[in-house]
Amino acid sequence: MTALDGLDGFTIEVPSWAYGNSGTRFKVFSRPGVPRDPYEKISDAAQVHRVTGLAPRVSLHIPWDTVDDWSDLRAHAEKLGVRLGAVNSNLFQDDDYRLGSLCHPDRRIREKAVEHHLHCLEIMRETGSTDLKIWLPDGLNYPGQDSLRGRQERLAEGLQRIYAALDPEHRILLEYKLFEPAFYSMDIPDWGTSLLHCLALGPQATVVLDTGHHAPGTNIEFIVMQLLRQGRLGAFDFNSRFYADDDLIVGAADPFQLFRILSEIVTAGAHRPGSGVNFMLDQCHNIEDKIPGQIRSVLNVEQALAKALLIDQEALAAAQRDGDVLAANGILMDAYETDVRGALADRREARGLPRDPMTAYAASGYAASIATARVGGEQAGWGA
Ligand code: AFD
Ligand code: MN
Fold it and tell me: Would you list the domain boundaries of the chain?
């Protein structure tokens, strides 16, 4: 038994939307070979799992990933060695939602938002998905625009309607975000608000922690610890940020923070299969190639977890008990400073995987093949 055996069974879920074109309000760059439909998105996602062995699930986004025959899409994924994961609802791209969706002052619009989630649950029954991810883009741009409290009451009512429709195996993953698209007050701006609504709903409601959704300098590992204590950390949306909600490759901005987050996960044993925590990515590769961007992200999470598994927990607990500040910090830093890349490459090779997934993907010729094959049609994008 070695520390890295803790990686056994650890899996990461990749988002279908990471393979489409994305950008900012200034420009969405198109790239050759970008998927034109959910089938091609899943084919791209399957390349990440093929070279890493870590990413067997693909999150869907509705309506972007809607197909006529869900069992056919499910079979397509499974033929490629992956399966359909969480279903993401979309409350941010319909003109009716200009003033909000589940929090909207008009009951007719709130009803439309509830119905959208009931539709997502129907899809989940066909895809075999168990997680319904709700990111609420609702909020206010100006003080006085609407009642902060009234919106919470409306939200609670709508969430209750959705929760009541869950099957026993379903979960709601309720995501928070500090700002954007609303700029004065989001209706679920922080982990506390998401947790309060989850606690009010019941045990099948849990919090999604998107690592890009906090104020600069937030101690995210503290939130991880707190949600784990409550048994309400349902999932991560891993990405990284320098300033806003940048959706960059996770670990790119602050690998030490990613290590500290995964250290709390390891301390609670939440990295193990069956922990109830879904380790998902939520990224938009605006300027970099998308499949390699996802491979890099998956490898960054694996590397941070490997380092967290190296922490000498017994020595750390003893140093903490003794109040030996420098020894305790040193034990944590020893793990973080360990170069685990060779050990991870050995582990991949022992499992029949390429030692260097990035090089293996580049050498596969897949990028050139899709650039040649995918001519015509309409490329998928952030919003298409
Ligand atoms: C955007 C939101 C949020 C959500 C994702 C998928 O900021 O992170 O999880 O879209 O809907 O990135
Ligand atoms: Mn997210």
Answer: 10-311
Structure tokens at 27: 């420009």
Give 363-376 pLDDT, tens digit per residue.
Answer: 999 999 999 999 99
Measured from the Cβ of residue 112, the count of other Cβ atoms closer than 10 Å reads: 17
Which fold would CATH assign to domain 10-311?
Answer: TIM Barrel (3.20.20)
Which residues are bridge partners to 186 per DSSP? 139
Average the pLDDT over 100-119 and give the result: 98
Q: 217-236: per-residue pLDDT in tens?
A: 999 999 999 999 999 999 99
Mutate to test the pocket of ligand 1, among 64, 237, 248, 278 (most ligand atoms within 8 A of CB): 237
Q: Mean pLDDT across the stretch 182-189?
A: 98
Q: Which amino acid is at 242?
A: F
The one-letter amino acid at 168: P
DSSP per-residue letters across 293-335: HHHHHHHHHHHHHHHHHTS-HHHHHHHHHTT-HHHHHHHHHHH
